[in-house]
Amino acid sequence: MSTSLESTRQTINASIAKADDKEPTFASTVVRYMRHLYPENLADKSFDNTGLLLEAVTLPGKSEKTLALLTIDLTRAVVQEAIEKSAAVVISYHPPIFKPPLKSLTLANPKQSSLLSLAAHGIQVYSPHTAIDARVNGNADLLVKHIEKGVQKYLASGERRKSPAIKVIQPSKEIRDPEDGFGRTLEFERLIPLTAILSILKKLFDVDYLPVAIPQSVDNIASVQVKSVAVCAGAGSGVLRDADADLLITGEYSHHDTLAAIESGKCVVHAFHSNSERWYLKQMKAELEDLLQHGLNRDVEGSTEWKPTSKVEGKIEISERDRDPYQIWSPPKDPAD
C-alpha cells in the first residue's frame, strides 16, 4: 500500500474512531440540544423525515467550527452562505431529504449537489420540521399566544381581559406533555375585527401582504368579525380542514379546501408556506443560545442521571439568504391612469 493511501486510511479511521467515542463537538452539541428542545418522536413520521440528515466527517488537524446556521429551506443560496461562514451545522426547518430512500447522490440533482457540497466542507444538517409544530411553545402554540397577546392589547383599557382557552387540534401520539400536538384553536370572549388579527399577523410574519379569503356573502374584509381562530404553520389543510373556528390561519391551503371553508362561513389566511414558519427561527435561536450559555441539567438521551454542563462557545445565526420562493409583484402605476 502506498504511503499516501496509508495516510488517507489512517486519517479516515481516526475520524471514525473519534465519532465512535462520541467526543462532543459544537455541531454534535447543537444537535443534542435540538433533540432536547424538539423531541423527534413528536414529529409526524407518517410523512416527515426529521433528525440528523447529514453527518459530516471532521478530519484531524482541522480547527473546530463553532457556528450553527438556522434556515427554513436549504437552498443553494443558503448552502453557499453556510460554506462562506464556515458553519459547523445547518438547522433546516424543512428536511432537504424528504422522500427517502435516496438511490444515488449526484451533482446533477440540485438538492443532492447541495448536500455533497456541505459534506465536502464538513457541515452537518439537522431538520426538526413537524417536531417544532407539535411542541408546547412550538410554532402553532406560540402563534396563538402572540395573537392572544395582541388582541388583549387591542381591547379597551377598561374591558375584562380573561385569557382565552387554547386547545390542541390533533394531540400528539407520543405523550410527552398533554399540550403537545398539531395545530391550536383560540376562542375569544367577544367578536374581534378580522383586521385587528391581520395586523398582528402582518407584523409577526414581517410581510407586506396577506392573502385572505372571506365568505362571498360579505362585502369587505373590514366588516368581518371573528370569535375564534385555528392555526397551523406550513401546509395546514390536513390539520385545519375540520377545525371548529371562524378564522383559519396557515401558510398554505388548497383552493378547494379554501372554497369549502368560505362556503361554510369561515375565513382563511394563507400567508405563504415559509412565511408562517420563518418568524419562529428567532425563538429557536434564543432557546439554543440559552442552552449554549447555561448547558443542560440532565442527559437528554433518556437517562435520569443529572449531569450539569458548562457553557459552550459558539454562535447561532439566522440565515440572511433564506426567503419564501414567492414574491408579490406590483406593477408601477401608469401616470396616464
**What is the gyration radius calculated from CA atoms?**
23 Å
Largest sheet entry: 6 strands, mixed
Count up the helices.
11
Structural class: alpha/beta
Mean pLDDT: 86
In order across it, which strands form the biggest sheet?
5-6-8-9-10-7
Strand content: 15-25%
Helix content: 25-40%
One letter per element, helices H and strands E, the order comes to: HHEEHEHEHHEEHEEHEHEHHE
Number of strands: 11
Roughly how many Å apart are the termini?
80 Å
Low-confidence stretches: 303-308
Global geometry: globular
Key structural traits:
337 residues; alpha/beta; six-stranded mixed β-sheet; five-stranded mixed β-sheet
Short description:
By secondary structure, the protein is an alpha/beta fold.
Describe this structure in words.
This protein has 337 residues and is of the alpha/beta class. The termini are far apart. The longest helix has 18 residues, at 3-20. The strands form two sheets. It has a six-stranded mixed β-sheet with strand order 5-6-8-9-10-7, sandwiched between helices. α3 (76-84) runs parallel beside α4 and α6 crosses α7 (194-205). Helix content is 34%, strand content 19%. β2, α3 and β3 (89-92) form a beta-alpha-beta unit. The protein contains eleven helices and eleven strands.
Which helices and strands occur, and which strands form pairs?
Blueprint: H1 3-20, H2 26-37, E1 51-54, E2 67-71, H3 76-84, E3 89-92, H4 110-120, E4 124-127, H5 130-134, H6 139-154, E5 166-171, E6 181-193, H7 194-205, E7 212-213, E8 225-235, H8 237-240, E9 247-252, H9 255-263, E10 267-270, H10 275-278, H11 281-294, E11 315-318
Parallel strand pairs: 2-3, 2-11, 3-4, 8-9, 9-10
Antiparallel strand pairs: 1-4, 5-6, 6-8, 7-10
Helix pairs in contact: 2-11, 3-4, 6-7
